[in-house]
């Protein structure tokens, strides 16, 4: 076997063993019996892959690759914060690239090794997706409504604050105005989500309305907070913008992993929309200030 291929397969073995350790750790923390059993089963498959790759390179299966405690803790924390589907999608985010590499390597092996390699490729293509399809997490079901609440609130409230930046000098008035506009808009968005969910038989209208309103209101409160902590309008605005970008970034990353999208492209697009809204409303507020000579 070519030395470069041997090194690649050794790397694959380490990756498969890492997945085995993580799946086993997740299974131990899982309360649902069906999910726990499925996670253990996935872990055993990854262990089988590790043993095959190690045997193929002539390595010692007992010389187990190191798995850092920090990586294990981090992924368990991800599971607690964002759910099992997100964690598994995160683990498998480079799966398509890996499968293509497996296929390339398999074509260079003998017939017996090729057959086993192809079996592993089928495992990788099927078993994680099958498992994920069986996990019914409410956050996945209502992710569209969460996105609706968060993104609309970020754009709208940032626009309100940017407008006041050009028109007023009082952070207190700007903060209160943002809360008032945001609260009324959250109710409106909740009603719209309720009506939308009524036309979709697989969604609960009340849950949809609550999720949309709650995510909207959370964003509004977070973005208004800096205006109550400082009397400097410019500082409050820029801190609020940073919070908006951070909140948007976290959710965009979550959606990008779940829906297998390009995070960088989605994030750049969202920042451009946010910036465009802020600039446009600031100029509008500045125009109103000059037109009516506002000073409060």
Question: Explain this structure to me?
Answer:
There is one protein chain. By secondary structure, this protein is mainly α. It has 2 domains: 3-136, Up-down Bundle (Ferritin); 139-292, no CATH class. It has 12 helices and no strands. Helix 10 runs antiparallel to helix 11 (233-258). The longest helix is centred in the last third of the chain and has 30 residues, at 263-292. The mean pLDDT is 83.
Q: How far from one another are the termini?
A: 78 Å
* Low-confidence spans: none
Helix and strand run? HHHHHHHHHHHH
Beta percentage is under 5%
Helix amount: over 70%
Secondary-structure class: mainly alpha
Rounded radius of gyration (Å) = 25 Å
Total strand segments: 0
Give the number of helices.
12
Mass-distribution shape: elongated
Sheet with the most strands, sense and barrel status: none
The tally of structural domains comes to 2
Mean pLDDT: 83
